[in-house]
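Protein data:
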Amino acid sequence: MKELSGEKDEKRIIWLDFVKFIAIFMMIAVHCTDNVTPAERSEPWYNLWGSFYGSFMRPAIPLFVMVTGALLLPVEQNISAFYKKRLTRLLVPFIIWSLLYNLFPWITGLLGLSPTIINDFFAWAEPDQSLSGALHHIVMIPFNFSMLAVQMWYVYLLIGLYLYMPIFSAWVRQASIKEQKIFLALWFVSLFIPYLREYLTKDLWGTCSWNEFGLLYYFAGFNGYLLLGHYVINNKMNLSWNKLVMMGVPSFVIGYCITFFGFKSVTAAPGQSVELVELFFTYCSPNVLMMTLPLFLAIQKIHFSSVVIRRFSISISTCTFGIWMSHYLFLGPCYMLVESLPLHTMVKMIVCTVFLLSVTWGFVYIVRKSGKIGRWIMG
């Protein structure tokens, strides 16, 4: 989630900008469906429509990572210059927004507001207005996110990917297509690990109480999506629309069905473990890959000739990181407003997604246009 650095607007890869738009829309949609309590989630009506809608949106993070791999691999700068440029643009807004989110409950207390307002904004957070609670969350920022800033999990991941890319890039630069395919094949096998651990054995391929690094550990994770993005954009997969539809649509449908029916069955009853609830929604899983790759390939084939669409794609693409950082501040109020409307549950989710994305995009756009400080705040 970053600007297409080094590219002038007329030389931008517009279809990748559009991929970022699809990805941020999907991620906003996921959060619009998640802004409920576990009891509400287990209600049959919400379980059905929340699962139906949310399952479509799982390619969000893989799409972002594939764009990152497509644009930045292999890394052309030396490691110091790369870290200075990339990490600075991540860390400054990350720290600013993490502080704001974690200070929010304390500020509501200073204003004399009821603790219940905290859950109006952040459904899963503890309604603690104490300064000590805020300071505890702030001290923990170097180690992990709090429930007041759940979306920051991805920023930790992105920082890790940026740290890894210059090292990984050295191999990518000299690896043959065959070697890259071997890596991707082993990575694909690793995508089954969550299911094998859940349904076969917790200790898999050498993992045990004294070792968490199993057989395919070094091929697993989001680095596979990084390499896949690089591979797709540098090895033109000249599939006709007919072939893409014949292969891509079944792939997406099968991946979606596994995601939907698996998640719906698990969440139908309250009291399930967090790990089991998230199992079929896991980003590094074969079902999510089966949805992600056809979508990425389909967008790659689109020719964006419309000036309006090109400008739209560029505008929202440059705002995606800011939208990611700030949208949780607007999620609760937007959700409550839409929830009050006399609409079908599914329609409410769609309306909430469009509304929240529009509000946040407008906010980020205005702040970024305010000058250099605004761009530092939003990334």
Observations:
- DSSP finds 17 helices and no strands in the chain.
- The longest helix spans residues 307-339.
